[in-house]
Amino acid sequence: MGKLEPSQSEALSLRELVEHLRCRAENLELLDRLVSSFKQEVEHHHQVADSLKHGLQLVQQIVEEREAFFNLSLDMLCIATTSGQFHKVNHAFEQALGYAPGELLTYKFFDLVHPDDLERTQQEVNKLSEGIDTVSFDNRYQHKNGEYRWLNWTTPAPIPGSSFLYAVARDITLQRQRDAHTLFLASHDALTGLANRWRFNEELEASFARLKRHTDKTFALLLLDLDKFKPVNDHYGHQAGDLVLKAISQRLNATKRETDVLCRLGGDEFALLAPGADATDADLIAQRMRKEIQRPVDIGDADVTLDVSIGIALASENFSDAGAFLKVADEAMYTAKRNKGNCAH
Ligand SMILES: Nc1nc2c(ncn2[C@@H]2O[C@H](COP(=O)(O)OP(=O)(O)OP(=O)(O)O)[C@@H](O)[C@H]2O)c(=O)[nH]1
């Protein structure tokens, strides 16, 4: 091989240089593309990071709001596991039941339900696993001091897959007491405190309904009407008459059995519903009541002695309804009245 001429070697190194430069340009282009792709990726990561940060802030905000609502709510709120263990309760819940913060978390929901309300409460809660969306029910729930409060519960079914139950409760003890008081006023006679005519009708209807279902659930009805009560008012005044009515009511109330229902129908008329009493029992009851009424009543200035006419009717499924039965008792009472105070069946 001969040595290259200078012009030949120059041309070669120029080609190499051009090739070298072309390679570098390509590399630079590649690098450029890489850099811009990295830039895009970094940009994307920034965006993801930003949206994650935003999401996290939202979650944080929701958690804080939930906590605030949970603790500031005046309603009693609780979260329990589906097995009934308290998981979280709010201040209102603890306060209403007299427990210190966190103290209730050692209890199960059913630990504090009144024994008489347990079965019904269990039935209500069971409905949630039987496809019912939300249950609402009342029960008596134990306060730390041992007394029971009436609570109204609203519990939606747990979210599928969740092992928690959410419940809202309201203390309705006062409302219940008011309702009971209103019912008492509506069903009792203001002067004597005995059940009134409205309650008597309710009891009579209920006794008849029981008799229709179970023919052995017979009962007796005694209708009492004081004899010559009007002259007491006329001689001694209306207030003295009231005293007599009250005294007689107390005596009759003291002689009756716990299951008997004694009512003042109005004026000087009384009624006694005696479940399970037959003719002999009814006679004995009537005699006992009459004896109590015949005892003198001290009205301050004088002693008042009264008598009573009593009509007795014995219920049987042969009566078409309570009205027909009451009519028979009424007629018996008027017969007694005509016979001057004897009892009549
Ligand atoms: N003091 C008082 N009197 C009442 C009350 N409600 C009704 N009376 C009176 O009770 C009397 C009842 O009337 P009657 O049953 O006809 O009087 P009575 O003298 O017992 O008549 P007999 O049953 O036929 O013997 C009336 O004078 C009513 O004004 C009340 O709340 N207080």
Automatic annotation (TrEMBL):
Residues 217-345 form the GGDEF domain. This is Diguanylate cyclase. InterPro entries: Biofilm_reg_signaling, GGDEF_dom, Nucleotide_cyclase, PAS, PAS-like_dom_sf, PAS_fold_3, Rev_trsase/Diguanyl_cyclase. It comes from Duganella margarita. Coiled coil: none annotated. Residues 79-132 form the PAS domain.
